[in-house]
Amino acid sequence: MHKQLTNIKKATIVAFFVFTTQFTFSQNTFFQDAEVFVNDLLVVSNQYVAPAADAAVYQSSGSWYSSARVLELFKIDASIHINVLPVPKSQKSFTVSDSDFDIMKIRVGTSAEVPTALGGDTAVFYDFTLGEDEYELQTFEGAKQSTFYYPYIQASVGLWKETELTLQYAPEIKIDESGYQTFGGAVKHNLSQYWLGDERDDQQIEVAFQVAYSVFDSRIYFDDFAIKPTNPEPGQGPLAVIKSLDVQANALTGQLIGSKQFNNLEVQASLAVSSNKFDYTIGGDGDIIIDLFNGAFDALEDANTIARGNLGVNYHFNQFYIASSVSLGTFINTNLSVHYRI
Questions:
Q1: CA-CA distance, 288 to 124, in Å (whole number)?
Q2: N or C: which end of the chain has fewer CB within 10 A?
Q3: Looking at the whole model, is its pTM more than 0.85?
């Protein structure tokens, strides 16, 4: 009898060990597959968010100046601005293929055109396996907006040595459920004073250099995207639900500005280069996948440099003037502003 009990205990221990090992192995396989899945998802996400990040730079750094002239000492220029940024077709979608991924497969075909964050609807699904279970995910859809409108306020003050300080701010602006917010500052220094002198003609060409730093926060909400089992068991919910994308664009912009006034009209132009750093955050439900996703984004060094040209025309009357400018590059960002000088 004692020998039988001993054998039963041994069998129980072996069975427990085998079950525990298989369970641990299954868990490890799930997390290993989840990490590979997140890496695959980043391949899509990088191309998905990049146009929105670049658009944020154009919107937040395209209108820091209205002239190469600077304000006199302690004079103030207060202005209200609105940016209008149409989304070009080339920035609304991109192509993915099965060869881009390690674990995900496109459900129909081996390649597909999918939206960016600035694009529209899609019916493309990815299939993949985590551990022993099969899952599916519909690729992200875009904001479904063909044009972005972005108002903000700005103020400049004249300092010593023909230098000007500008501050820019916008409270959070809601467009549908998505929101935008910016703040930053710039310093402009007139260069033509060094060869034109103090008694220069108002009709002469002015040249200045400006350095600006801006932070642009945008939150894009889209229809919920569930990472869920392909054939769920009764009561089995999604692994994660992705609901929003936050993009923070930190831009350091340097630009060489030229302007010339013809009576009430003033034409201005600049060449600008922005060095940009982006931070992305995915919002949603499902701590495991969401945390893995955002951890992968944190480890990703995402930065670029954008060069563009700016052209504009101002119309002056009394203490007011109306300024308009267009940034030309990957995007065409138009800015219209009304200024009051004190």
A1: 24
A2: N
A3: no
* Element (DSSP H or E) covering residue 25: helix 2-61
Q: In 3-state terms, what secondary structure has residue 145? A: coil
More confident: 143 or 188:
188
3-state SS assignment for residue 13: helix
Residue 208 is which amino acid?
Answer: A
In Å, what is the CA distance from 264 to each residue of 94, 202, 317? 46, 11, 7
Burial 160-175 (b: 16+ CB within 10 A, else e): eebbbebebebeeeee
Q: What percent of the chain has pLDDT over 70?
A: 87
Of the candidates 97, 116, 111, 114, the residue with the CA atom closest to the CA atom of residue 48: 116
Cα distance between residue 138 and residue 236, in whole Å: 18
d(CA 270, CA 274): 13
- Count of residues for the chain? 342
For residue 219, give every residue at least 6 positions away whose Cβ sits within 8 Å of its Cβ, in sequence order, or none: 178, 179, 180, 244, 245, 246, 247, 283
Tokens of 215: 């932070």
User: How does pLDDT run across 282-327, given as a tens digit for each residue?
Assistant: 888 877 778 877 877 776 657 789 899 999 999 999 999 999 999 9
Q: Write out 42-97 in H/E/C secondary structure.
A: HHHHHHHHHHHHHHHHHHHHCCCCCCCCCCCCCCEEEEEEEEEEECCHHHCEEEEE
Neighbouring C-alpha atoms within 13 Å toward the C-beta of 115: 21
190 φ/ψ angles, rounded to the nearest 5 degrees: -75, 125
